[in-house]
TrEMBL record, chain A:
PANTHER family: ABC TRANSPORTER PERMEASE PROTEIN, ABC TRANSPORTER PERMEASE PROTEIN YESP-RELATED. It comes from Sphaerisporangium rhizosphaerae. Belongs to the binding-protein-dependent transport system permease family. The keyword Transmembrane applies. This is Carbohydrate ABC transporter permease. The lineage of its organism: Bacteria, Bacillati, Actinomycetota, Actinomycetes, Streptosporangiales.
Automatic annotation (TrEMBL), chain B:
This is Extracellular solute-binding protein. Keywords: Signal, Transport. It comes from the Bacteria. Transmembrane segments: none annotated. It comes from Sphaerisporangium rhizosphaerae. It holds the Pfam family SBP_bac_8. Belongs to the bacterial solute-binding protein 1 family. Residues 1-24 form the signal peptide.
Amino acid sequence: MATTTLGRRGNAAPVPARSPRRRRGLVALLFLSPWLVGFGLFFAYPLLATVYFSFQRYDLFSLEPVGLLNYRYFLRDEAAWTAIRNTLWLVAVMVPLRVAFGLGVAQLITRLKAGAGFFRTVFYLPSLVPLVAGTLGFVYLLNPASGPVAAALSALGLPSPDWFGDPAWAKPGLTLLALWSVGDLMVIFLAALLDVPKQLYEAAALDGAGAWQQFAHVTLPVIRPVLMFAAVTGVIQTLQYFTQAMVAARVASGGTDSAGTVFVPGYPDQSTLTFPEWLFHQGFRDFAMGYACVLALILFAVSMVFTLILLRQFRGIEEEA
Amino acid sequence: MKPRPKLAAAALAVVAALATPAVSACTAGTENAPAKPQSGSTPDRTPVTITMWHGFVADNELKAFDDALAGFHRQYPWITVTTTKAVQDDQIIQASRGGNPPDVALSFTTDSVATFCKTGIFQDLEPYMAASKVQESLFPKVIAEYTQYKGRRCVMPMLADTYGLYYNKKLMKGAQPPKTLSELAALTKKLTVRDSKGDIKVAGFVPSSQMYENAPIHTGTMVGAKWTNPDGTSAIGGDPAWKKLMTWQKDLVDWFGYDKLEKFRKSFGDEWSADNPFMKGQVAMAIDGEWRNAMIASDASGLDYGTAPVPVADDRPDLYGGGFIAGTVIGIPRGAKHAQAAWDLVRYLTTDTDALVTLSNALRNVPSTLPALQSPKLDKDPNFQTFLDIFASPASSTLPAHINSAFNQQTLQEAQIKWESGRGDDLDALLADVDKKIDDKLKLTAGG
């Protein structure tokens, strides 16, 4: 649509008018602008800057172009690869165990005739404990010399492993810690389980289905979207696993913060070294910020791949439903 | 839906416009060129307030430091100092990068000195020293190694730490402190007490590198071990002294049994509390810094103990009497608003004999200038005197400033833990790997 107006000499000249479509576009842009600003400032710009810095030697003060040096260093940085293996171990073991344990606890609580509220609270409370405090408590509980777990095992005549001092036991120790604080998942599963229509169980029971068959053929299909949500968020959280590993290693090593002594990340033998922890050390202890950017980009790419795979699965489930 | 290129372009333009200030904010720090230092002190006596960040936390430390600052204010009444306590190096770095640093900053570790000097986080102090006629000869030679990097002195020493051997006279049962590693091993075996299950009740000495102050940076001086070559590359694998030290440690760890020793070590209380195993009588001998004297006086005053230099390799008697030296450093960050007044404070805290003696007497750290060491006002007792002697010994050494100081120490310590635990059985291969990692990291961070 166009309107006409008179020119200086009185000639009619076509002037483009603001079309409703264009106006709608501008209005949409206006409404989108808060998101666009956030996206630009907190995602697009940091991502582009990270890519740029990954080709620089950057100590937070000076920049020096170094081409692919940071990327080549990554290929031969054994600690980074150890950190990748550790992080994948946690994703492969800790996430499924947390989902299974959270679901199991929720399932048991739904079966309770009395005291469900008490047990729900008991299992949920650990997830409210600050990460550092929870980890400190766990390292103390599992201390092979003075911890109550070692004392109990000793009373039973059983040996106690040096949980956070033995590379073979350190990651299982962290997994125990993660299972202890499974309350966040348990609450979500509990809500999902209580949402499963009762008549489905009744119909299954009439068909002669036992408890396991009811769980496999009624409960699981209905709560699959919730399970997938737990898996996606669990994987993303575990790819960023940092605090518990850092605190456990620091306390178990007995390392002091005195001048002249350094913390050995991933103690013992880098068995608890996670990828974000190594990234942090490169950037903020060694000031190899360019290299830290390479690690950050790898973490970003891996997180994206995991998320896309899981979301594709999730979409498939939704379509089935 | 059809794409709308104009709309997308407009959206991108908005994002770009908003991102621009953020991009410009992320340039490499602010560069406030230091003012040309005036001769001596502040040129005029206009009242000025300067800011200082330090890491002191404990009440006795804060009081001692406030006393020292009061002494400064008496000499420089026109300069008022406001302090911020419990500050770590990363806060100093971030503040300098953000262009809002304090006028004076103090660091407890020398690990960051190379970064401070190389990046210019702290200003070059040579012009100030020249203008004030502060002579290098005021300080023991070893201090120069940890207060400058590649010829650029950006921090000054304010008090020093030295490391020696503490021994519990009662547990020693009349034995004299060992002077060689062989004597230390023999005495350790003699003094160790186990229960019926073989668990350790009292250890003569805990040889593990994981023991509180047994880090390689402190024990390397026992064998005269070298960390780096002049070009910054690793000297560890090529220096037989490290192999000698680690073999000695492993033999003694094996005598205890690694698992037994770890179980014993993990029964210890906090190093910085009254539960320290030496103060509780769980170990007869321990390597520690001079500050332990003050802690024993405060929390275990009944402990009958003595101090001596650390034992040394049997074939290096020339090293006896020395030990590891490091200390607190202080400087003027880039961008300091009152650099000249800041220098007055730095100069006072690092060269004024009375200030250093006051701090030393209160904190029981070693004063870092030669005149302060000789001051009659310095409180001396035999146990503290040991550390003064170690500080003055030509056999003492430090870890020279290195751009990857923390990484280098971490890499060697990881190899030590693997070795003494038995999880790595080829010492040559472990040390060669340490060299490779340190050299690779040097190429990454410094292009060396």
